[in-house]
Specification:
single chain; about 525 residues; mainly beta; Tachylectin-2, Chain A; Lipocalin; five-stranded antiparallel β-sheet; 5 helices; disordered N terminus; hydrolase activity, hydrolyzing O-glycosyl compounds; glycosidase; Glycoside hydrolase family 43; hydrolase; Glyco_hydro_43
Length: about 525
């Protein structure tokens, strides 16, 4: 992939170091060789963007999200709001999707139903391509393409990729169903009791558009109703490639919706995002489970992870489970690596966001991710807080491959730290840690904070405290392995700045278990 980034495949290196004064963004400190040394971004400006999809252009990072919210940054730490013509002309640009969605609601208002766009640069079209969900009640949703010469617009409507919700041939005639399938007879699988069969058919939302390693363009989409699907797109137009056809095969593919890659039967997740990693030659599939709120009974949002050697699957997790559900009783709890749940460390206590005490993070999810030209990995998502409101902000965390080739997520947000590739001394690693075991809970209901426990990594390789086991650091590397309750976890040690007001430099660890659980630790400095 050459030229401009198609997802994010490049990032400018060499963050400038500037002495921090008053409201400045950068602060330079002197550290020994085990301390973080890259320009640490210790003062940040926040942005509120739900379902952030990240893309880079000319040294700037853009996140595009639901409800016409967008942000821009030069350093992945401080963000500002940015608007496009979609903020003002949305009803005209997406009029086709709005008309379709109106079938599901007499008083339909498109303004609050533009969800989770994904933006890429298409070098054949020489255009920025925005794929936008136009959500509708009763599953009358669609995904539209709008293009622009500049990433900040103006964007113009080009066409619609896929529709959902059609329950008869009259409605299907308003879509591309016949063009895609060769028939105007609606498949009986799509209808149940005269309504959309949401256990089978997806809701046409949450696009993720990505090039495979051969340069072919694909779109993943869907939600936790009928599952996540994938369609081949035409590289030259950015629209659906109608020459690429599909067969209807139970729990595998559908002649209109494409290849099934995850979920189905009203279970599993939404918000798919796929990243190809040339280091491992895997495609990594992220999706989000449960309810997106923080304060009510639609709660517990979190990210799950699968991978495949082929962009169309099969996608499996660390335990070897398929991402695809085979029935409505299929247990999604055990499917997918759970990256993190609702967590808090002492450094988060009384840190002020939205003029309230955050006291920890809740319902972090609907992510995007990217790998830069230096093979640095980043996870981008929105998060709510344990502060009694539904306020949310964007967060960026670094990721690192463990020895099994799974991306583990850094404990604290990105503030410019670099990991020590030669590892850390035993003296710097042993000691007391705050410890969070993220578990596998996937309850779509009120979900409280995970317990923050205490453990000690002893110099003799044992773990004591609230959990017991063993630990080992790999020589001349940041890799580490822990065994707790007979489960083997593999990950990394990483000295980074915490999220206290002082931004203390602390040792952390982040590991993934063979049971799909993640464990995090933050050292308690004496």
């Amino acid at each position: 992939m050459k030229g401009k980034s198609k997802k994010i495949l490049s990032i400018a290196l060499g963050i400038s170091l500037i002495l921090a004064i008053a409201l400045s963004v950068f602060l330079v400190k002197a550290f020994n060789k085990e301390e973080p040394v890259l320009g640490e971004l210790l003062s940040t400006e926040r942005v509120t963007v739900h379902d952030p999809s990240i893309v880079r252009d000319n040294g700037k990072y853009y996140v595009f999200g639901s409800h016409k919210a967008n942000g821009v940054s030069t350093d992945l730490a401080s963000w500002s709001e940015v608007k496009t013509n979609i903020n003002f002309d949305y009803s005209k640009i997406f009029a086709v999707g709005g008309k379709w969605a109106a079938h599901g609601s007499k008083n339909y208002n498109i303004s609050g139903n533009l969800w989770a766009p994904d933006v890429i640069y298409n070098p054949e079209m020489k255009k920025w391509c925005m794929y936008m969900s136009v959500n509708g009640d009763k599953f009358y949703s669609s995904i539209a393409l709008a293009t622009a010469d500049n990433i900040e617009g103006p964007y113009s409507y080009v066409g619609t990729i896929v529709y959902s919700g059609f329950v008869n041939s009259t409605l299907a005639a308003e879509t591309d169903y016949k063009t895609a399938t060769g028939t105007d007879v609606v498949d009986s699988n799509y209808v149940s009791g005269g309504a959309w069969n949401s256990l089978y058919g997806p809701n046409a939302i949450d696009p993720c558009v990505v090039y495979d390693k051969e340069g072919n363009l694909w779109m993943a989409y869907g939600s936790w109703f009928g599952g996540l699907f994938m369609l081949r797109l035409d590289n030259s137009t950015g629209l659906r490639d109608y020459s690429h056809t599909y067969e209807t095969k139970k729990d595998a593919s559908d002649k209109y919706f494409g290849i099934k890659i995850s979920g189905g039967y009203g279970t599993s997740g939404e918000g798919s995002y796929i990243v190809y990693d040339k280091t491992t030659d895997y495609y990594y599939l992220y999706e989000s489970y449960c309810g997106l709120n923080a304060t009510d009974n639609f709660n517990g949002y979190h990210i799950r992870l699968f991978r495949s050697k082929d962009i169309t699957g099969p996608y499996t997790d660390a335990s070897g489970n398929s991402a695809i559900c085979l029935s409505k009783t299929d247990d999604k709890t055990t499917k997918g690596i759970k990256l993190f749940g609702n967590y808090a460390f002492s450094s988060l206590k009384d840190v002020e966001f939205f003029e309230l005490s955050a006291d920890g993070y809740k319902s972090g999810g609907h992510n995007s991710a990217f790998i830069d030209d230096s093979d640095q990995r980043y996870l981008v998502y929105h998060t709510r807080f344990n502060g009694g409101t539904e306020a949310h902000q964007v967060r960026v965390h670094q990721q690192f491959l463990n020895e099994d080739g799974w991306p583990v997520t850094a404990v604290y947000e990105y503030l410019g730290n670099e990991i020590s590739k030669s590892g850390y001394s035993k003296k710097s690693v042993v000691g007391d840690y705050e410890f969070v075991k993220h578990g596998l809970d996937a309850t779509t209901g009120y979900t409280d904070m995970l317990e923050t426990s205490k453990i000690t990594l002893n110099s003799n390789g044992t773990i004591s405290g609230d959990f017991t086991g063993t630990w080992e650091a790999k020589s001349d590397s940041y890799y580490c392995t822990m065994v707790i309750n007979d489960v083997t976890y593999k990950g990394i040690f990483f000295k980074q700045f915490d999220e206290s007001a002082a931004h203390n430099s602390v040792m952390t660890f982040s590991l993934i278990g063979s049971n799909n659980e993640a464990i995090w630790g933050s050292k308690v400095e004496q």
